[in-house]
Design goal:
Layout: E1 11-15, E2 24-29, E3 41-46, E4 49-55, H1 70-79, E5 84-93, E6 103-104, E7 108-112, H2 137-150, E8 154-155, E9 159-163, H3 171-179, E10 184-186, H4 192-198, E11 202-212, H5 222-243
Parallel strand pairs: 1-4, 1-5, 5-11, 6-8, 7-9, 9-10
Antiparallel strand pairs: 2-3, 3-4, 5-10, 6-11
Length: 270
């Protein structure tokens, strides 16, 4: 851990342990926040662009999804100067067209979490952030294009359902999610996406189907999830390496400006 000021980065990757191997000239740092201490960040480069990697589940995948300090994670990236976040997520397939190993770039989400702090704005000014387009269209476009150059199939229309975890769903819960129009289910996409929007950061998710959801497959095991992630891991690495340099340096989306239109009271910086 270094004492000097870390390099700033406009792009972040959030994912599982091991993705830091994407980076060159890596520097490990700690970033304190008003919400606690996130996992140690890795700052490095991909084809000349400075990237910060955040291991969502901590060192050695030690944090279950319902115990992750999402506010500290996202705020630490904000302090690093991040403007765009690409998250990687393992999901269970609800849509019967999807199969284990498929890549999904969701366009919408539904929140079924129960006990997570969901906002930076618990106090005045009252803030209602627009979430009509929860995933940044600009980042999604680049991910879709680069993913399709590397793998097939890539699904670019999918509704992500986020549940509390850490258990997997029941067959009845999965039938309910399907009836509500959800295509995949995971445990980490919320509140990440909403918190990023509250701080004006772009956020998009590169998901992979690790298993068929409960009631579709006979049984779900963590071993199955890990084995699938190992199979698709190299393709995810390739996609990120190709996509990140293609993100335009100037943002043309509305992700960064939406917070200015969300406050009911006197404007105040988060």
């Amino acid at each position: 851990m270094k004492d000097k000021a870390p390099r700033k980065s406009e792009i972040a990757v959030i994912g599982g342990t091991g993705l830091e191997s994407l980076l060159e000239s890596v520097e490990k740092i700690r970033v304190g926040t008003p919400y606690g201490l996130p996992p140690r960040l890795s700052v490095g480069e991909i084809r000349g662009r400075t990237i910060v990697f955040l291991p969502r589940h901590g060192r050695g995948h030690s944090l279950p999804p319902h115990k992750i300090n999402y506010r500290a994670n996202i705020y630490s990236l904000h302090k690093m100067g991040v403007k765009r976040i690409i998250a990687t997520n393992a999901v269970g397939a609800i849509n019967l067209d999807f199969k284990p190993g498929d890549l999904i770039i969701p366009h919408d989400l539904v929140d079924f979490t129960k006990q997570r702090p969901l906002t930076f704005y618990d106090d005045a000014p009252v803030t209602h952030v627009d979430f009509s387009e929860p995933y940044c269209p600009e980042v999604r476009e680049v991910l879709i294009q680069k993913a399709r150059e590397i793998v097939d199939p890539v699904w670019d229309q999918a509704v992500y359902a986020c549940t509390e975890g850490p258990r997997y769903g029941t067959p009845a819960e999965i039938r309910m999610l399907r009836a509500l129009g959800c295509d995949v289910v995971g445990m980490t996409g919320i509140p990440e996406a909403a918190l990023a929007r509250e701080l004006g950061m772009c956020y998009a998710s590169l998901c992979f189907v690790s298993n068929m959801a409960a009631g579709i497959s006979d049984r779900i095991t963590s071993r199955e999830v890990v084995e699938t992630s190992q199979v698709v891991g190299s393709n995810i690495h390739k996609i990120l390496i190709e996509a990140i340099p293609c993100l335009p340096k100037a943002r043309r989306c509305s992700c960064g400006s939406s917070i200015r239109e969300s406050r009911m009271g006197e404007a105040k910086r988060c």
